[in-house]
Amino acid sequence: MTAPPNPQSAMEHAFLLMLVVAVTLAFAWLAGPFAGAILWGVIAAILFAPLNAALLHRAPGRANLAAASTLLAVIAVAVIPAMLLGAALLSQAAAMVGNLQSGEIDFARSFASAEQHLPQAARNWLEDIGFGDFAMVRQRISQAIASSLQPLAGRALDIGQWALAFFLSLGVMLYLTFFLLRDGTQIISRIESCLPLPPDQRSLLTARFVEVVRATIKGSLIVAVLQGLTGGLAFWMLGIGGALLWGVAMGVFSLFPAIGTGFIWVPVAAWLLLTGDLWRGGALVLVGFFIVSSVDNLVRPILVGRDARMPDYVVLVATLGGFELMGFNGFVIGPVIAALFMAVWDIFRDARPAA
Fold it and tell me: In which region does residue 348 sit, left (phi positive, over 0), alpha (psi from -120 to 50) or beta (all else)?
């Protein structure tokens, strides 16, 4: 005969569960300011875990040395190139702003050149909406640029504070990455032991988590880098100004399926064709369609694989939702959450017949 449940024991268990939830939420709130640093530290540890394991295999018992060597690889492969890219991006953006202020980039002249190649109906439409006077257009653009740059003069303190916060977050990320590389196996084992699931489901869930995170991050970031690189090189070879800015923009928009890099190169190609630059416009269309846009279809299946790849509509919704809720970090968190959502439902589906 089964003994009746002990009310005191049930109450203690319920209280302990509430205490665990409350303390976990409090710790999450405390670590909130460094959520981005924690996220990228976890991502770096997952992506570079195979390298750390290989180094540890060559030097058994030297966990600190293996983790430190892997951390140096993270800095050399990811951190330093990202900082150099950011510096170059800021320099090119400042140069473009200077060209706009000096009039070297003259939108009115470009509009006039495009207007000569437009049909009469389109010209009449531009005049109806107030863009027929190109001198007025230039004046409006100059005023808009001047008004937008005025607040920057008094924001030196804010920029300094942002730089301090950035390097502080970078330090936290690298510090966390070291310990995740060194103690990652023990941390995963402790998390597994706390999950109220059968042992086989616990192991499957953690393995699936690492798999989908690694596949999603590799598929998204590497494809973004390749598409941004090919697009930027195409702009540079065609002599289009701001090639680095355009390349970074295409890399960012490549994270959005269905929209992709075409959001950048299609309008630029159309503008070149409208202004009579038929050779560069046609070349950009060919390169964008056959090279830049095809990188995703060629590379992503190799990096992600068929099992871990999600439908494009799921990726689109997850990416847009993540960006709306969490900003730039949402580009990564959104698809990862969607991948885990599908993985957990797959585990649940496979576990139902056994239950």
Answer: alpha
Give dist(CA 267, CA 284) in Å, integer.
11
Q: Taking every pair of C-alpha atoms in the chain, what is the biggest distance, in angstroms?
A: 94
pLDDT tens digits, 141-191: 556 655 555 555 555 556 667 777 888 888 999 999 999 999 888 888 887
CA distances from 330 to 32, 99, 325, 344 (A): 15, 33, 7, 20
Radius of gyration of the chain (CA): 26
The string of pLDDT tens digits covering residues 310-350 is 677 777 788 788 888 887 778 778 877 887 787 788 777 77
Closest CA to 302 of 225, 232, 222: 222
CA torsion angle for 155, 159, 160, 163 (degrees, to 10)? 170
Which among 237, 202, 177, 182 is positioned nearest to 351, based on CA atoms?
A: 202
The residue written with tokens 């730039």 in the block is 328
Q: How far apart are CA 355 and CA 344, in angstroms?
A: 16
Interatomic CA distance for residues 308 and 327, integer angstroms: 24
What is the rounded distance in angstroms from the CA atom of residue 222 to the CA atom of residue 296? Answer: 10
Assess contact for 171 and 34: CB atoms under 8 A: no
Write down the H helix ranges in the chain: 7-30, 35-47, 49-58, 63-74, 80-102, 107-116, 120-128, 134-153, 156-194, 199-217, 223-237, 243-253, 262-274, 278-287, 294-304, 312-326, 330-354
Chain mean position to CA 43: 12
Structure token digits, residue 196: 């109220």
Q: Residue 156: count other Cβ atoms within 10 Å of its Cβ.
A: 9
* Residue 33 to residues 23, 162, 178, Cα–Cα distance (Å): 17, 13, 20
274 token code pair: 């409208």
